[in-house]
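Box 3.1. Reading complex inputs
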Amino acid sequence: MQKSLHINADKCTGCLQCEMACSFENYGIFNTAQSRIKIFDFHHTGKKVPYTCTQCAEAWCLQACPVDAIRVDANTGAKVVNEDVCVGCKVCTISCPFGTINYVQETGKVQKCDLCDGNPACADACPTGAITYVDANWTGLEKMREWADKLGNQAGA
Amino acid sequence: MSWAGKILRVNLSTGECRSEPLNMTWAKDYLGSRGLATKYFTEEVDAKVDPLSVDNKIIWATGPLTGTMASTGGRYTVVTKGPLTGAIACSNSGGYWGAELKFAGWDMVIFEGKSPKPVYLMIENERAQLLDAAEIWGKTVWETEPAIKTKHQDPMIRVSSIGRSGENGVLYSAIVNDLHRAAGRSGVGAVMGSKNLKAIAVRGTQGVSTVKNPKAFMTATKEAKKVLADNAVTGQGLPTYGTQVLMNVINEVGALPTRNHQDVQFDGAKDISAEAMATPRATDGKAHLVTNQACFGCTIACGRISKIDETHFTVQNRPQYWGANGGLEYEAAWALGAANGVNDLEALQFANLICNEDGIDPITFGATVGAVMELYEMGVLTKEQIGIEAPFGSAKALCHLVEITARSEGFGKDMGLGSKRLTEKYGHPELSMSVKGQEFPAYDGRVIQGIGLGYATSNRGACHLRGYTIASEVLGIPVKTEPTDTDGKPELLKAFQDATAAFDAAGICIFTSFAWTLNDVAPQVQAACGDEFTVENLTLIGERIWNMEKDFNLRAGFTRKDDALPKRLMTEGAKTGPAKGVVSGLDKMLPIYYQVRGWDEEGRIKPETRKRLGL
């Protein structure tokens, strides 16, 4: 059974614990500039929105890579960059519709979310439950539960 | 480690930017941020210096936990000699700027001299340069931040800057970062403006990789975050209601200073409370409060983001103020509201928003409005002088005054002096509700005895953030003490003051102390910096910081007579509430406080105390 990162932007406070957890997990350093998940702060509405790779089933990045540096992790379903193979051509960064795979000038390779081998550090670090790691077939479960609650439990619904 | 190990020294007179190794001996003795920056400052600057002169210096400093996964580890401190007080000034801010400076590889930035023309400092990792600020001089903070990001084509730059009030020498100008977070008090922004320094822009991509024992650090920070999450105040109260939750609580205690401290309860408190913020308005059916917001690394998220009513008289046809904005926090809501008898929530939010936009301390500003309104009601100041009728309770006067203060227009120039100088100018110095020239925050110092003593003895002038005895005296943290009791308060205050200095020096937010004691902080600092930072050592460091600040003030010329409260708090009893008739017991507490501190009867640090603290 595979899981997915599930994001509820309404719960995000913009603390960036996820960004630091990501950089620490992957590089052993606290550095939001090296994070593979990014929080966007929309000042005019007050909204903070976490954004990272959704691990497309048919991944554009994977299809576009000319050297097969991006492979599917059979356990997690994550599309994982093999840095030993990546040549830094950046075609994947162009093909990704969402911008979630990016070139790293310090290494000459690309980086993207790899779901931390099935234990995503960002979800673990999120203090509000804005980022969770849930059954890939049931990312809508919590929302369904909320609506079910509204329908079944609350007066006048 | 966990210090970056490097400081940036900028000579504004010559334009030189130089890297220096951090003095690690001082880092061990003063930890960081407030402590370490004040050590550098007091070693380098003559205590008698004119705060707005070329010889004053100003320092931006992070702590060892800044830029790490420690909860609330995003703070920075600005240290200088304050123009409002003439005392040591030390102002702390959250947001994201502090962590960005650390990510660029710097523990602190020291500015000296004065630039011949307006400049801003651009820091990109190890590269730092002063750039021409002609295009942004005269602009607000909210114009400055996007202008710098656009110019450098980098939306990820963080900016710490002043608005027009700092340029114009308003003596309580704040330094603002990330639009809504401020090093608010003591007029640090005026010092920045006096040096022709508009902003510090930072982009840091190097991160923090110097944590001593990463594994132990992750364990310690995770455990400490759980303590915050499980605590009723930091886990539920602050994220849900913000600091504003205090408005009704303090009003019920009878300690909500009202109409320039003439009263201790405000009948409009409920209209400007956290509960009011969350209640849908009659006009548009929307609640004032939009959401809560965290600063960097903060797992509490007490920050308020609100939207002003678009039909309110303050913002009609001014769509630039219709978006989501920071506030209201408790202190600002009190200072702009109860302190002046104003109960119009939208007007308070507007005044708060102008304070953010142009970098003004809302506490001193609001308290100065209170003094002006009292002078107006006495007939000392007239409508012609002020530019508007200004009785207590006038939302129109409040909003008029904030705009002319921001722009230093007309009577706004007088407003920019703060209440001490303004009331002196108009012949009624007794009406300034201040200590050492800095105005009281939102707790009545005659009703709550410990905080009154705290105001009198705070090294940066009246302040609640230097020893928040309210935690004990009102909220029962860590133990409940009776607000009106004076017994035991000197000891209680000293413990709060010393611990607070250690929290500040670490680079974390003092709001964690609703749940954390130094027992929760020490394991995090130890894992980050070294085993020597035990609870005992952190307590000693806190006490050392307090005495270092005091020593500077003594050398600046402050004496026992400056550790005093205004006559109103000493002689006019509380008119209503549970503490009706109570006045401050400062005269009883102060001598004991000096003893507890190891100071002589004049408040001078005894030689044996200096020796014990290694001063």
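In summary: The mean pLDDT of chain B is 97.
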